[in-house]
UniProtKB/TrEMBL annotation:
Keyword Ligase on entry: no
Molecular function GO labels: endonuclease activity
Protein name per its UniProtKB record: Uma2 family endonuclease
Putative restriction endonuclease domain: residues covered: 36-190
InterPro entries: Nuclease_put_TT1808, Restrct_endonuc-II-like, Uma2
Upper taxonomic lineage: Bacteria, Bacillati, Actinomycetota, Actinomycetes, Micromonosporales
Keywords noted in UniProt: Endonuclease, Hydrolase, Nuclease
Highest taxon in the source lineage: Bacteria
UniProt xrefs under Pfam families: Uma2
Length: 206
């Protein structure tokens, strides 16, 4: 995938978040990778020329992301796929950081991965980003041709999973399950879980 062109003088700049308020042109995924420092803090994404900074969500979200990414990776490897939490996915000039993604090939040695390599992509819905996770992001993932979209939702701290398949350009739900039941999918690989297992249990505390 060719890197989007940008001003060659940018190559002399040191990566800094201070640049967010100084550049008066639309941002691209490549600009963000080149000009913004790597960090373990907020997500920094690019959508339609704008940089979007999102703080980490609450601990229920983080627990679900930790558990689901680990379990998905174990299942995906059996089908020669790779699952990762919060990785850089490039779609044209846009840069997305989904909560988790399953790739057709290993991301070893890569900073970004083109959306064409993503088999399944997912979001854990947060109160502050519900519209983005339920409407905006899936629309862009569908436009990028990602075959499957997996969404995790919480209702009164009770998790549920919904798997969507891309059909005629839109995601349609094909499997759903709430905590206390078993979520089972066969495509793009076999995977089963009780959504309740995504939550930290007080019984696990020291």
């Amino acid at each position: 995938m060719a890197a989007p062109a940008h001003d060659p003088s940018f190559g002399s700049l040191e990566p800094s978040f201070d640049l967010l308020g100084k550049l008066d042109q639309p941002w691209t995924a490549q600009m963000a990778i080149d000009l913004l420092p790597e960090n373990n803090g907020p997500k920094v994404e690019v959508f339609r020329g704008s940089v979007i900074v999102t703080p980490h969500a609450g601990y229920d979200h983080q627990a679900a992301e930790r558990q689901l990414s680990f379990l998905l990776h174990k299942a995906a490897r059996a089908a020669r796929m790779w699952a990762y939490p919060e990785v850089n996915v490039v779609s044209g000039d846009d840069l997305f950081i989904p909560d988790f993604a399953v790739l057709r090939r290993s991301g070893r040695g890569h900073v970004t991965m083109p959306i064409s390599e993503v088999v399944l992509i997912g979001e854990i819905v947060s109160t502050g980003s519900r519209r983005k996770d339920v409407i905006d992001r899936p629309r862009e993932y569908a436009a990028g041709g990602v075959p499957f979209y997996l969404r995790v939702e919480f209702r009164n701290q009770v998790p549920s999973l919904v798997l969507h398949r891309l059909i005629d350009g839109d995601y349609r739900p094909i499997v759903a399950a709430a905590a206390g039941t078993t979520f089972t999918m066969s495509d793009p690989f076999a995977f089963a879980i009780d959504p309740a297992d995504l939550m930290d249990s007080e019984d696990d505390e020291d």
